[in-house]
Amino acid sequence: MTPVDTQVDTAAFEAEARADGYDVMTKSMAPSETLGDHTHDFDARLLITAGEIAVTVDGVETRCGAGDRFSLEANRVHSEVVGPEGVTFVVGRREA
C-alpha cells in the first residue's frame, strides 16, 4: 500500500485513474465492517471521500480518512477495518 498526498479532488483522481487504465466506481462499506486477511485479483487505487478505513499490509496499519488516497497491488495480502461511521471511497480497479 502506498500512501499519497491528502488533498486530491475527486474529478482529478478519477481522470488520473482512467488515464492509467483503471475502471472507476464509488463504493461504501458499513460502519465497523472488518475484513480479515485477503487479496484482490486487481490493482486498486482509492480516494476516501467520507469516513475512515484502516488497512494493514505486512503488519503495518495505515489509517485513511476523507481526502486520503492509497494504492494496493493485485494479490497483496491485507486486512481492512472500517471506522465507526463507515467509509465511502472512489476506487479505481485495473486487472492485473
Describe this structure in words.
The protein has 96 residues and is mainly beta. The chain has a single domain, classed as Sandwich (Jelly Rolls). Helices cover 10% and strands 60% of the residues. Strands 1, 2, 3, 4, 5, 6 and 7 form a seven-stranded antiparallel beta sheet that branches. Strand 4 and strand 5 form a beta hairpin. The two termini are 15 Å apart. The N terminus is likely disordered.
Q: In angstroms, what separates the terminal alpha carbons?
A: 15 Å
Largest sheet, strands/sense/barrel: 7 strands, antiparallel
Q: What's the total count of β strands?
A: 7
Classified in CATH, the superfamily is Jelly Rolls
CATH architecture title? Sandwich
Succession of helices and strands: EHEEEEEE
Features:
seven-stranded antiparallel beta sheet; single chain; about 100 residues; Jelly Rolls
Summarize the entry for a quick read.
This protein is mostly beta strands and 96 residues long.
Topology record:
Layout: E1 2-3, H1 10-19, E2 23-29, E3 34-38, E4 42-57, E5 60-65, E6 69-72, E7 78-95
Antiparallel strand pairs: 1-6, 2-7, 3-7, 4-5, 4-6, 4-7
